[in-house]
Specification:
This protein has one domain (8-136): Endonuclease III, domain 1, CATH 1.10.340. It has 7 helices and 6 strands; from the N terminus they run βαβααβββααβαα. The protein has helices spanning 18-23, 41-48, 56-61, 87-99, 108-118, 125-134, 137-142, and strands at residues 8-11, 31-34, 65-68, 71-75, 81-84, 120-121. Strands 3-4-5-6 form a 4-stranded mixed sheet. The protein has a two-stranded antiparallel ribbon with strand order 1-2. Strand 3 and strand 4 form a beta hairpin. Helix 5 crosses helix 6 (125-134).
């Protein structure tokens, strides 16, 4: 680990919602390790020590977040608190949602909607879910065949 990286270990419990349990799916994220290059770190520092000088961007971004039981959560528009995840955690959540026990290999938009419904958030959710579903080998192998011509199409002139 580089010398300039700072680590904090945060204990995280199980996240399970009734709608998830009826499907039989439960996502377990045991420990969150926050390093200095994590996107949550400036927001957490600002929320813990608001009197220190911070960039304007961080102060504006922190308006949408709060600390809840030692976790960073986002206040969504529909008044739901979504737990913010780091990179290792959200890769695990995407894998479980896409190809886990109840994963149905959904496309990126549906996968993003499901993850938000389970109560998780990170800033690049839509892009990451889309890239993950496009990179799934099983989806590519068993998905619909793309009917693209192998050569450029030529105009047909009507006589």
């Amino acid at each position: 680990m580089p010398k300039d990286c700072v680590q904090r270990i945060i204990k995280v419990g199980k996240k399970s919602l009734p709608s998830v349990l009826t499907r039989g799916m439960e996502i377990d994220v045991n420990y969150a390790i926050i390093t200095q290059d994590d996107w949550r770190d400036p927001i957490i520092n600002y929320l813990q020590y608001p009197t220190l000088p911070y960039e304007k961007r961080v102060r504006i971004m922190a308006l949408n977040y709060l600390m809840w039981n030692g976790d960073l959560v986002q206040k969504s528009k529909d008044e739901v608190l979504l737990r913010c995840l780091g990179k290792k955690e959200y890769i695990k959540v995407m894998r479980e949602t896409h190809e886990g026990i109840c994963g149905a290999h959904q496309v990126g938009r549906k996968m993003c909607w499901l993850i938000r419904r389970y109560g998780y958030f990170w800033p690049t959710m839509m892009k990451d879910c889309t890239n993950y579903s496009k990179g799934c080998e099983a989806c590519q192998r068993h998905g619909p065949i793309q009917q693209a011509p192998s050569v450029p199409m030529n105009l047909v002139v009507k006589p």
